[in-house]
Design goal:
- The protein is of the alpha+beta class.
- The chain has one domain: HIT-like (HIT family, subunit A, 2-Layer Sandwich).
- It is built from 4 helices and 5 strands; from the N terminus they run ααβββαββα.
- The chain has a 5-stranded antiparallel β-sheet, with helices on one face.
- Helix 3 crosses helix 4.
- The relative contact order is 0.21.
Length: about 140
């Protein structure tokens, strides 16, 4: 947990994300690399590795948070599709990447996304504007 950005926040989280808000059993984080406008992470509130490590009730609440975040992304940015990715081979904290895909944007449409294409970062004002759009639609 000492090296977990989701648990520790601060500089560890700031390397890749900006916390938007707490949801019911998770936190919503804007992924700094924005090749897919609106890309977020929904990280479970506790440091667990697998979806099978939480109760059925907690799992249902977590997936409700994921759905709430996806709905806000759809309303705020109008993607054609949101892809959901659950990874964590090295950072074993339960989280889902919500990756909006846009048919009119040829970048990776119809293919699997790169974990971090390292090609598009925003200004602080642009991050703030994006966060406000998401919050307004939660």
């Amino acid at each position: 947990m000492q090296n977990c950005g989701y648990c520790q926040g601060g500089e560890l989280l700031a390397k890749f994300g900006i916390k938007i808000c707490d949801l019911d059993v998770s936190q919503l984080i804007l992924f700094k690399e924005q090749s897919h406008p609106g890309r977020c992470i929904v990280a479970y509130k506790d440091h667990v590795s697998e979806i099978v490590n939480i109760s059925e009730e907690e799992r249902n609440r977590y997936f409700a948070d994921v759905a709430k975040a996806a709905n806000a992304i759809h309303k705020a940015f109008g993607p054609k599709k949101v892809n959901y990715g659950a990874y964590g081979d090295t950072g074993c904290h339960l989280h889902f990447h919500l990756v909006p895909k846009y048919e009119d944007d040829p970048f990776e449409w119809g293919g699997v996304f790169a974990m971090n294409p390292d090609r598009k970062y925003l200004t602080d004002a642009e991050y703030d504007e994006m966060i406000e759009k998401i919050k307004a639609n939660l």
